[in-house]
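Write out this protein's structure.
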Amino acid sequence: MACRLWAAAGLVFFLAIPGELSAQSRGLQPSLLPAGEQPPIPPAPIPNVPAAPTPLSPEAVLTPPPAPPVARPAPAAVPTGPIVPPGQIALALAARFGRDPPAITGGLLWRIYNEVPDTTTGVFRLVREDRNASPVLLLPPGGYIVHVTFGLANAVKRVQLRSETVREVFEIAAGGARFEGRVGDVRVPVGQIHFDVYKGSQFELGEKRPIADNVVSGDVVLLPEGTYHVVSNYGAGNSVMRSDLRVLPGKLTDTTIVHRAAKITLKLVGEDGGEALANTAWSVLTPGGDVIKESIGAFPVVILAEGEYVAIARNEGRVYNREFKVESGVDREVEVLAR
């Protein structure tokens, strides 16, 4: 009877746990067997019995399934445009280098004028001024004149503000010009050279006035598209050079002007290599008698174009002179003997 019960128990246990049984699953615990009786060998597995589903682990049973995602409302859209108060209209402005080139991102000055001139003075009243590259201005409805400058270039438009935001893009065909001077391969230091810019070619007839003067070496001059010529003044003597250039929209044109000149230091001495005499008045002349430079001092320095010159020194009522020659790039001292 005990063997039949064990066989039935072994069958039920086998059906509950698929696969190979462990050593403990082949019989009851020794403490549950009658004394002196060995556990019987369980019968062979019954063929064609489907395996029981794999039981869930305790963690899987105790862990609840993940909650479905909760649909959250999308954040409210933040307005990107300006908040326009009642009675005002937004005027958005921008500028670019002509039709196709990129936008101008700096160096702009915007001025907004009332469309109707003052009845007393006849002058258009300035309403607003802004230096941002792309300003958005809030103005009352009406007509205005918008004027923008980019260096020496400018553009103007008439706009009407009615009910909606008005956007205007100005086309300014302008570029930049930058200059430097050299003597041979040596760059002229800043402060010893300056430039004057004129409209048109240097070969055009007629008297012209500079549109930009005393431009420092390395500075950028913003100009409308077109042809210009620049006059380079090296020092305060006669070293003057000219050059033509072409300014293109949205481009920076670099112009290097080469001078053939040298720096000359004048000295009035009692003997060769002697001490310079103070309180000496100087004149530097061309061989034809044209005065190039006049100064007073013991060590005057003059920058001269290459060529031949005459130095005249006046000291204590006496006059001394000497002829000398200037070679390009050869800076030197010229001594005049007081004899």
